[in-house]
User: What shape does this take?
Amino acid sequence: MWLTSNAFMTPLNSLSVAQLCAAVAVKEQIEQLETQLASIFGQTTAPEVAGKKRRRMSAAGRARMAAAARARWTKIKNTHVAPTKKRSKMSAEGRARISAAAKARWKKAKAAGKTTL
Assistant: This one.
């Protein structure tokens, strides 16, 4: 706005009533002159909206986005985590073979006088 206070202007609360009235009168004159200038150049006097213009989405576009979101959630909810593979149990025969092999290694190591493999 034009009557704001900053580092280069006098704060509004320190101005007298007469000064404020004079400022309002000057502002009104500026607006009248801008209107006259715009009419000379054939421009409308409507002020331009600052900032970006909002983009509108059609109902069909919103429907497509909603359908895609629903499909993503359905896909996420319907995916089942694969159950972890159960550890296979060793048969008694397999355990016996491994045990026999370990005993044979230790027997050989002890015969050689070793305390570690």
Observations:
- The chain has three helices and no strands.
- The chain has a mean pLDDT of 84.
- The radius of gyration is 44 Å.
- Residues 13-41 form one domain.
